[in-house]
Amino acid sequence: MSTVRQWVFEHGLLLANLLLFLAFLVGMALTGVQVYNDEQIMHGAAAVPFWQYVTTGDFVEAVFENWESEFLQMGMYVVLTIFLFQKGSSESKPIGESTAQDEDPRKESNKKDAPWPVRHGGIVLSLYENSLVIMFFLLFAASFVLHAVGGAEAYSQEEMAHGGGWVTPVEYLGTSQFWFESFQNWQSEFLAVAFIVGASVYLRQKGSAESKPVSAPHAETGA
Questions:
Q1: What is the pLDDT of residue 103?
Q2: Which alpha helices (H) appear in the chain, and where do they start and end?
């Protein structure tokens, strides 16, 4: 197997998800511009070209409203799985057992193949051992802000079309519209997590890392 093919094989899960993300994002933009222009024409305004549409508040709000909920879901899920358990679920750490995830990485600081922050120690290690959660919540915060920025523009244009005024992103945060957009996505994300946590107790998928072995007892907890 060539070096490139080997690399693709070893990173296939990440690559497949990135390609699906790009395909659906492009699909969202292509269909979104049609919806946007239909509304523009309906209100007596001119249609806009594709590249102008992707800079509008409508598109920015739609994208980051969804990203915000995804990053919140994943960040909270990482945090909750530190402290909470679900008996029988492949998504939970085993109950009452010591796991490798709970071990102090400082005991492994002399390992040559340990990540550099582990070997370095100090504040660098403190940040690194929480870096997954930090990343998700930084992405959530950035998406939250961009949702507010894009949403404020889209909301303002709608208000002005009906005789209202322009609102700033901070003012938009105080509207029920902003929180409706957020809550409608947040609730669905945590419902999906609840389903995978609960369903993995009793249901199986042969070959998937998200499932316990097909023959595993329902009460067996962990992957």
A1: 92
A2: 3-10, 12-42, 50-53, 57-83, 116-120, 122-128, 131-161, 169-172, 176-202
The set of residues, in sequence order, having a beta carbon less than 8 Å from that of 71 and lying 6+ positions away, is: 136, 137, 139, 140, 143
Residue located via tokens 């980051």: 64
**pTM for this structure?**
0.93
Interval 109-120: pLDDT, tens: 899 999 999 999
Question: What would the pLDDT profile of 10-36 be if each residue is shown by its tens digit?
Answer: 999 999 999 999 999 999 999 999 999
> From CA 193, how far away is CA 199, in angstroms rounded?
10
Please provide the DSSP assignment of 54-84 as one string.
TTSHHHHHHHHHHHHHHHHHHHHHHHHHHH-
Q: pLDDT averaged over the chain?
A: 94
175, 167 contact by CB (below 8 A): yes
The pair of structure tokens assigned to 107 is 């005991």
